[in-house]
Request: fold
Amino acid sequence: MGIDNVERRVSLVAGAIALVLAAIISPHLFKNTWVTDTAKPSKSGGCPTGYRLVHAVCQHTYLTHPSTWLPQFLEILIVGLAILFFTWRRNRAGIAVASLLLGLALGVVGLTFLLLGGWLIIRALRLQRYGDASFSGSTRRAKEMSREKRAARASSPRAPRRDAKSSAKQPAVVAPSPSKRYTPKQRARRR
Reply:
């Protein structure tokens, strides 16, 4: 089964967010840019080597080459286009895998994509198990299945329990005769 309209809209938004993130990174591809990292000052008030104290925060500014941004840009662009492609094809598994990969690659920024992938996987499991992907529908169906199972157990006759006395009355299990095809020939035992 393909994705429903709610999943499709959410996936389209996620694909659009990925393309916006790629567009934000794209200016870094055409020129060298200055990037600033921050760190907390130590308890003594000093900063690590290469950092300087600015307004109670240690900052380090350095120049980056466009080639440092290219892998991340390509990753976001390709996976974002994959999300949009799988959304167009209504392929739930493809969207879930692509969004989980992008979410893991982006870290904190990718939390949105991790949530989307997890949500789609949970909906797929509900759909497979209960026939309805919604929370209320799957809960209702689970309760119905539970009632049916209890009713079937109550109506079926129970097998009698074995007692120590009844197990002694039953004949011993006879071992099957050896197969001519698979059992190797054995020498006769001496007595």
Remarks:
- The first helix runs from residue 5 to 25.
- The chain has a mean pLDDT of 85.
- The first strand starts at residue 33 and ends at 39.
